[in-house]
């Protein structure tokens, strides 16, 4: 058995050698030979640091700052957002949102649409490629939500997000099942 200290900025290692990294302290004990190799993109670490440090200031209550406003508050730290990009994140439309979803319109994809259309973000099309610090817009049957990825548990089909949500009354960490309509994007 190999004890490994995995980090928020974590690097996963192929093999059975011992690995020790210094950062924000996630722990793992077990075999690591089946874990994929990847490192957290630098901008993602900056996004995480900013949302952890400032999330409660950006979204002190859900009524004062819903999920889209939290994302806009974080994103404006890293890039200038036009009114059109903010409206895309907010999913401002006169059209029926459910019909737009049914027709695979880009409008309900929110932050994904805003960042990919402006070329400020890179689409993440495989769940295995999602990293902490990526942004996500997702939809269940009757409602949608957005946030910043804390982690993804592929085996259980769940994701942990930094977001502004009613049950956390603003900024917090919430767990969601990963639905079919789930759009991940990474800030460039």
What keyword list fits this structure?
single chain; 188 residues; alpha+beta; 2 domains; six-stranded antiparallel β-sheet; three-stranded mixed β-sheet; 9 strands; 26% helix; globular
Q: Describe it for me?
A:
The structure is a single chain. The chain is of the alpha+beta class and about 190 residues long. The chain folds into 2 domains: about 1-40, no CATH class; about 40-185, no CATH class. About 25% of the residues lie in helices and about 30% in strands. It contains 5 helices and 9 strands, in the order βββαααααββββββ. It has helices at about 40-60, 65-75, 85-90, 95-100, 110-115; strands spanning about 5, 20, 25-30, 120-125, 135-140, 145-155, 160-165, 170-175, 180-185. The strands form 2 sheets. It has a 6-stranded antiparallel beta sheet. A hairpin with a 4-residue loop joins β6 and β7. The N and C termini lie far apart (about 35 Å). The model is unreliable at about 1-35 (pLDDT under 50).
Short description:
The chain is an alpha+beta fold. The chain is 26% helix and 28% strand.
Sheet/helix structural class: alpha+beta
Question: Mind summarizing the main beta sheet?
Answer: 6 strands, antiparallel
Side-by-side strand order of the widest sheet:
4-9-5-6-7-8
Quick one: overall form? globular
- The low-confidence runs, each spanning 5 or more residues with pLDDT under 50, are 1-37
Map the helices and strands.
Blueprint: E1 3-6, E2 19-20, E3 26-29, H1 42-58, H2 67-75, H3 83-90, H4 97-102, H5 110-117, E4 121-124, E5 135-139, E6 144-153, E7 158-165, E8 170-177, E9 181-187
Parallel strand pairs: 1-2
Antiparallel strand pairs: 1-3, 4-9, 5-6, 5-9, 6-7, 7-8
């Amino acid at each position: 058995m190999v004890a490994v200290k995995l980090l928020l900025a974590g690097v996963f290692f192929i093999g059975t050698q011992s690995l020790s990294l210094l950062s924000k302290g996630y722990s793992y004990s077990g075999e690591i030979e089946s874990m994929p190799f990847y490192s957290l993109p630098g901008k993602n670490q900056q996004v995480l640091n900013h949302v952890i440090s400032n999330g409660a200031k950006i979204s002190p209550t859900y009524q004062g700052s819903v999920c889209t406003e939290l994302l806009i508050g974080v994103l404006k730290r890293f890039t200038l957002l036009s009114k059109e990009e903010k409206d895309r994140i907010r999913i401002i439309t006169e059209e029926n949102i459910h019909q737009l979803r049914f027709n695979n319109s880009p409008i309900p994809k929110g932050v994904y649409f805003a960042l990919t259309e402006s070329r400020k973000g890179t689409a993440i099309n495989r769940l295995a490629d999602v990293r902490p610090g990526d942004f996500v817009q997702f939809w269940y049957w009757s409602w949608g939500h957005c946030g910043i990825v804390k982690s993804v548990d592929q085996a259980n089909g769940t994701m942990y997000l930094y977001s502004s949500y009613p049950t956390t009354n603003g900024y917090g960490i919430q767990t969601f099942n990963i639905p079919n309509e789930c759009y991940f994007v990474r800030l460039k």
